[in-house]
Write a structure and sequence with these properties.
The complex is a heterodimer. Chain A is mostly helical. Chain A has helices at 23-31, 37-47, 80-87, 89-95, 105-124, 130-158, 170-180, 183-188, 208-242, 244-250, 252-262, 265-270, 273-278, 282-291, 305-308, 312-335, 342-357, 365-393; strands at residues 2-6, 12-17, 53-55, 73-75. Chain A has four domains: 2-103, Nucleotidyltransferase, domain 5 (2-Layer Sandwich); 132-241, Orthogonal Bundle (Helix Hairpins); 243-357, Nop domain (Serum Albumin, Chain A, Domain 1), CATH 1.10.246.90; 363-394. Helices cover 63% and strands 4% of the residues of chain A. Chain B has helices spanning 50-56, 79-87, 100-112, 148-159, 172-175, 181-194; strands at 3-7, 10-13, 16-20, 33-36, 39-44, 69-73, 92-97, 116-120, 136-141, 160-171, 197-204, 212-219. The chains are: A mainly alpha, B alpha/beta.
Chain lengths: 394, 221
């Protein structure tokens, strides 16, 4: 609303209001940590007459240093006058004729907050990575949906052409159905030379009327697959733009997934690398915390080919190293934005070192014993639980 | 159909709690609407709203009056705030919510309900929204954060009137998943007591919400 100055006995000495129409804008300015004109002028006007002014503010104190009479300012948030104002806002405003009696304070406050909220919501969705996060999530959704639909298509089309199930490539399968339709024309197209097709036709006949429906269904799957392709392209480009280091290190898709999981690029950069390492394995992590089972080695990172294909005793080590480099790369992306090829190089070096250092699985008897003991303990615990439950019933 | 008034503005219809609809004919979150004797009531779903769950589980102190000022921390999409705005028709409800995504829904709701004041800010830093607030009669806190009782107490000290009442919904699982809920409730209660609050009432929210407890408190001096 504005600024108010009270004396020791809480009578209003002076006030300076924001213009009514620009209320929301001025409040936003205030929140941006800027000193507003109105506050400046009220302080200047009264600095001479007062021995000290106690200011209640959310701004940095340094903002006030350049004003006249700054030595008189004291800062206390919240202070007694503010408390007084908040307790009797309506009364004070009406008594001092700031608020006309017919004005409704509640309505004014409501309008004001709506103005601020609209502005803030706009700001919040401006973030560079919000579109990217939606895109990567939709890739996941499309994957899930096409998987289901493909299963249905295969089952549907198998009635007519069972041998075609030998084709494992999903896209090719869909293409064939969409392009050629029935069994005879697929065989005629001679795209299936690697397959042996017997003369005996184990499938059922299909009428044009039925075939048309299958084709339409297959066509919609094809559209989805194409959408996925263009989405993937989009994510790649976008990742190169906003997180070049991250996409260089782990690839744009995995990088985008990490960002989506964290909520934003900035948040990802704030995570410690141990968190990055097990992101996506929350279930396993909480199971570990709850029951004392062994902790997860990797979460989303597992999709990184080097980890997936690594030997089992190396997986955890590589995951840890990679997570550290991811944190590094993301921080570089957020805070400098420059591309640095050295991150990936140093990771690859480290990878080789790990492989060299641990060529064989650890085979000390101690660890094996520990593992066995752990399992036994778990089993015992479970049994105890079971017993207790039976005891409850009888 | 039997209708009895349970608290000021809260009615009981066939074992359900309900409030009188402020915006006739408009649903907020897909709840059931009922018309009895020319008045329209919104059935209050205890599985969606912890306050309704507490009422059904025998909450006795109900501080919301027709002209109450309320500070609601963790307003989310506005399920519970909408019912409070039904009750406190002439009052004011400051709804603090930090997530822009939830706030979008809440902002839509507040456009229709003039007594809701949405604030997009962090409830752990109550000073941030100091220049919008007045002192309030009730503070309702439903923030699933590990430090939820601390932030509740901070807000109480800053914004509650001297005789103000605070309702705190504790979610044991978001304080520490590994500890036993009952232990956490005890710890939180002693925290409130040592920091100058008196717990008037505590209500468990089973079976509607697991491992939740509602605390009603006030300043003890």
């Amino acid at each position: 609303m504005g600024f108010m100055l009270f004396d020791e006995s809480f009578t209003l000495i002076d006030y300076e209001l924001f213009p009514k129409r620009r209320l929301a804008k001025e409040m936003i300015e205030l929140e941006k940590q800027d000193l507003t004109l109105q506050e400046e002028s009220i302080l200047k006007r009264n600095a001479k007459n007062c021995t000290s002014i106690i200011i209640e503010t959310n701004l940095n104190i340094s903002e006030y240093k350049n004003l006249k009479g700054a030595s008189k300012f004291k800062f206390e948030t919240p202070n007694a006058a503010g408390e007084f104002l908040r307790s009797n806002m309506n009364k004070i405003l009406v008594e001092n004729e700031i608020l006309e009696p017919e004005d409704d304070l509640n309505a004014i406050l409501h309008d004001l907050s709506m103005g601020i909220i609209n502005y803030k919501l706009k700001e919040a969705s401006k973030a560079r990575d919000s579109y990217l996060i939606q895109a990567i999530n939709s890739i996941g959704d499309i994957d899930e949906a096409t998987g289901k639909l493909l299963e249905r298509l295969r089952e549907w089309y198998t009635i007519h052409f069972p041998e075609l199930n030998k084709i494992k490539n999903q896209e090719k399968y869909v293409d064939l159905v969409v392009e050629y339709g029935d069994r005879d024309s697929i065989i005629e197209s001679k795209l299936l030379d690697e397959m042996v097709i017997t003369d005996q036709n184990p499938g059922a006949e299909i009428e044009d009327f039925d075939l048309k429906m299958v084709k339409i269904f297959a066509d919609s799957i094809k559209t989805l697959q194409n959408t996925k392709k263009s989405l993937t392209n989009y994510v790649e480009q976008k990742m190169n733009e906003i997180a070049p280091n991250l996409s260089d290190l782990v690839g744009s898709l995995l990088g985008a997934k990490l960002i989506a999981h964290a909520g934003s690029l900035e948040r990802l950069s704030l995570f410690p690398s141990s968190t990055v390492q097990i992101m996506g394995a929350e279930k396993a992590l909480f199971r570990h915390l709850k029951t004392g089972e062994r902790p997860p080695k990797h979460g989303l990172i597992y999709q990184y080919p080097e980890i997936r294909s690594a030997k089992w005793w190396l997986k955890g080590k590589i995951a840890r190293a990679l997570a550290a480099k991811i944190s590094l790369a993301v921080r570089k992306d957020v805070y400098s934005g420059e591309f640095d090829a050295g991150i990936k190089e140093s990771f690859e070096k480290h990878l080789e070192e790990i492989k060299k250092k641990y060529p064989f699985p650890p085979r000390t008897k101690k660890t094996q014993k520990d593992a066995k003991n752990g399992k036994k303990k778990m089993k015992k615990k479970k049994k105890d639980k079971y017993k207790k439950k039976i005891g409850d019933y009888y | 159909m039997k209708i009895t008034q349970k608290f000021n503005g809260v009615y009981e219809i066939d074992g359900n709690v309900a409030t009188e609809n402020l915006n006739k004919g408009i649903k907020v979150y897909g709840e059931r609407l009922m018309e009895i004797e020319g008045k329209e009531y919104r059935i209050w779903d205890p599985r969606r709203s912890k306050l309704a769950a507490a009422i059904l589980n025998g909450l006795e102190t109900f501080p919301f009056k027709e002209d109450s000022k309320v500070l609601y921390l963790g307003a989310s999409a506005g399920t519970t705030p909408s019912h409070i705005s039904d009750i406190s028709k002439k009052g004011l409800i400051y709804c603090v919510e930090f997530s822009p995504r939830m706030m979008r829904k809440l902002a839509d709701l507040s456009r229709e309900r003039k007594n809701l004041i949405p604030i997009l800010d962090n409830a752990t830093k109550p000073k941030n929204y100091m220049n919008l607030l007045q002192k309030v009669d009730v503070i309702y806190s439903d923030v699933a954060q590990p430090n939820q009782s601390e932030l509740f107490m901070d807000n109480m000290r800053l914004y509650s009137k001297k005789d103000g009442i605070g309702i705190l919904m504790i979610k044991a699982r978001s304080i520490d998943v590994t500890k036993a809920p009952n232990k956490i409730f005890k710890e939180e209660e002693s925290k409130l007591k040592t920091h100058g609050f008196r717990v008037i009432e505590k209500v468990k929210l089973e079976p509607y919400e697991k491992d939740h407890m509602a605390f009603v408190c006030e300043f003890s001096f």
